[in-house]
């Protein structure tokens, strides 16, 4: 099976889940817990059990589905369950799900009894290429994404592309936004390669691996986000704000990748204005997202609210809103401060795009 | 000024708080927060301000006094205040208080935006000799002490013995239990020296420093409690259970050191039965605590409840209750499993002691 070495753990590409069997045989865990959400409990857990008929001794902890539930309340629920099931320091938590499960589960594990082992089995394209690699854990609070969290490394990450079959097209496309991002910030050839795909579902295991390898290289170089790791935040300053706004104001709210796709278009506009991203690159970036994503009807009159949310972003220092922007496709600059009026202009640029 | 080097930070013995002035001058913090509880806000903050008249730019976060408030609810309150005051990653949290403030404040800081700088200014004898050294953060949940927490190092620890003048005799004596513990587990001469004191308030800065140096040596050798650090848990398996029981069942509940003092007597009894602690040492240990502490009227009929709480202890693995016990004064063994009946016998031994 293929694998990538990360920060003291291995990322396995392993549909058989043999790597999980091996790891459990090698370690002597006192108890095994599997964290799922309602959806992965229904659709992914049976897949896992079919692959591993011998794995019978575990307890299930389930949280509700959706980013709006990545909260301290549900994290407390996980802690309480671990306590009630008498988890000790030699227990293992397996996070089986998308970013909500992997982010919140790893936060819960990294703080329970000052840290128990955890293992990531990301089941969405988004969490496979993003959330499960890099040692960040987190929950949201007061509209601020991942504002409470730790740096903590899993025992392993297992990428089983079979789980992607359980996803809706919308979920797959959402994850694809981060794949495109990896091309824009670090690898122009990869960008050209993946935007040839007719739709996100055509992504191959090889391309997923390439996407993860890009992110992994960056986080290994800068685990605590002092420098180059910030390039991964491209699209996320504006994108997170739109995502948060949508979560608290819209019934059918945006998925993470959908919001980040909007953020990347807006921030490409900023990059053109500020650091000379070529007009043709701005067009290529806009066209790429235009190919896979619908045009979001971003309400007029919410720009001040969005700026307010951006101000709360973890990435800021001293009240300035901090951006990572590409100066060309394949290369990204960090620590760029942007004037509020220009940010509003970029939102307007998105609104006026012809999809 | 005297100082001790710990794990990438310095412990200053510094009544002038010059070390704080120097640290703030050297770093460029975007905002400074001071966490206090109701008592330290009233009694210690004015002392700090009198020592540092130039420190005027800070926000105060206050939590209620007492171990029963070292909870996730008040931790959420700290996180919300940091968010509302727009703390960014370059903010500093100064924890000014006893163990509740230093444990909970450092947990809040170590998880806010994945970790902001924090500084410990312990104001009780207990937190000076114990909670503020060793990089453990934590809050309690469902009667289990420090069950949620992280390992995180402060930027510095500042010991100003002037703050001890603000304490009641009961508070000072509580902290003294941990000083005696350091003698029992690691330094027989120090044990003999400190039990000569008429009362806990007579403790000198030199003796406080010696006590911290013992703990610091142990935690430097074993920061993540894989081995020798467990010796610091002597008295804490039974002591924590009694403390938790008292917190949820008694109006005038035991202080940490008072409970640990009981735990050390009980566990010295276990040590005599199991690993040959000499009878004379058991008598010396009992006599030491008898000198400074009242006899606690430990209710009959609560032993099963206490055992239930002990089972939840973080230090356990695979359902066994794990003890650290001295085989003589000045030396301590770890990873000892004890039969439930013997534990009950040790509680009975305490109950029957003549004070």
Automatic annotation (TrEMBL), chains A, B:
Cofactors (names): Zn(2+); Co(2+); NAD(+)
Record-annotated 3-dehydroquinate synthase C-terminal domain positions: 175-316
UniProt domain 3-dehydroquinate synthase N-terminal: residue ranges: 61-173
EC number: 4.2.3.4
Keywords, in A-Z order: Cobalt, Lyase, Metal-binding, NAD, Nucleotide-binding, Zinc
Gene3D superfamilies tied to this protein: 3.40.50.1970, Dehydroquinate synthase-like - alpha domain
Function statement: Catalyzes the conversion of 3-deoxy-D-arabino-heptulosonate 7-phosphate (DAHP) to dehydroquinate (DHQ).
Protein name (record): 3-dehydroquinate synthase
Gene that encodes it: aroB
